[in-house]
Amino acid sequence: MPQTEPDFSIVIPSRNRPALLRAAVASVIAQTHLSREIIIVNDGSDPEHQTAYQELIENAAETIRLIHLPRTPNGHGPSYAINRGVEQA
């Protein structure tokens, strides 16, 4: 059976906040509309948060795409991160 495109994409920007990201992803997964894709844009999180982000992706109840932006002292900002996610949607 051919794979169909999702009806919509959910882009979640995040930087150094794995607990908040887990809550956001759980909220999306709990929704009833299933024709979607989830894209997380990691805006250059500090190294100590990278493992938590990777574990979230690996243990999620559905496929999630993770995009890593290069690390900068203050990140690129949510608008930039969202735009990079939309480009990949």
Features:
about 90 residues, alpha/beta, 3-stranded parallel sheet, 3 helices, 3 strands
Descriptive overview:
The structure is a single chain. With 89 residues, the chain is an alpha/beta fold. The chain has helices at residues 18-29, 47-59, 78-88; strands at residues 8-14, 36-42, 64-68. The relative contact order is 0.24.
> How many E-type strands?
3
Overall number of domains: 1
Largest sheet features: 3 strands, parallel
For the termini, the CA-CA separation is: 22 Å
Major sheet strand order:
1-2-3
Tell me the β content. 15-25%
Averaged pLDDT, please?
Answer: 92
How many distinct helices?
3
Element layout with pairings:
Layout: E1 8-14, H1 18-29, E2 36-42, H2 47-59, E3 64-68, H3 78-88
Parallel strand pairs: 1-2, 2-3
Quick summary of this structure?
By secondary structure, this protein is α/β, with parallel strands linked by helices.
